[in-house]
């Protein structure tokens, strides 16, 4: 049951990074984001209407602060990666380094704020990931 969403996320991320690295360097990064989000808006609206839902107003009223924070976060991710790639970041390692650092941060955020279990195995794994970041950064 979880295979499809994982593969969707992986495939979408692959295309995301290829597209991020391929954005015209002469284009203002924020105009690129305007076009990205206009495309995402249209795609999301179509998918909204193709899936079961209540009335639009009822669905909007179910939104909370997380939708706003997620939108701002997505903007930060997009700008961050465009800047990484424009600054010479490599497609082969930039995403990996960022993902590792996110995973390490999520380990501790999950433990402290969501009371998820932080085991010695997870800590050792996080340390190994950080070693990997160092090796990738200087390799």
Brief summary of the model shown:
The protein contains six helices and no strands. The chain is an all-alpha fold and 139 residues long.
Structure description:
With 139 residues, this protein is mostly helical. It has one domain (3-138). 79% of the residues lie in helices and 0% in strands. Helix 5 packs antiparallel against helix 6.
Indicate the overall shape.
globular
Q: Can you give the helix content as a percent range?
A: over 70%
* Low-pLDDT residue spans: none
The separation of the N and C termini measures: 38 Å
> Averaging pLDDT over every residue, what do you get?
95
User: What order do the helices and strands follow?
Assistant: HHHHHH
| Overall number of domains | 1
| Strand proportion | under 5%
Per DSSP, the total helix count is 6
Q: What structural class do the secondary elements suggest?
A: mainly alpha
Radius of gyration: 18 Å
Largest sheet: none
Q: How many DSSP E strands? A: 0
């Amino acid at each position: 049951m979880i295979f499809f969403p994982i593969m969707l996320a992986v495939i979408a991320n692959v295309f995301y990074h290829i597209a991020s690295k391929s954005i015209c360097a002469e284009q203002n990064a924020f105009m690129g984001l305007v076009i990205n989000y206009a495309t995402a808006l249209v795609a999301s609206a179509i998918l909204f209407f193709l899936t079961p839902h209540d009335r639009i107003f009822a669905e909007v009223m179910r939104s909370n602060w997380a939708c706003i924070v997620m939108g701002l976060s997505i903007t930060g991710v997009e700008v961050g990666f465009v800047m990484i790639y424009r600054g010479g970041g490599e497609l082969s390692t930039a995403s990996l380094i960022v993902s590792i650092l996110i995973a390490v941060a999520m380990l501790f955020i999950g433990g402290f704020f969501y009371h998820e279990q932080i085991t010695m195995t997870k800590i050792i794994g996080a340390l190994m990931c950080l070693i990997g970041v160092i090796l990738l950064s200087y390799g």
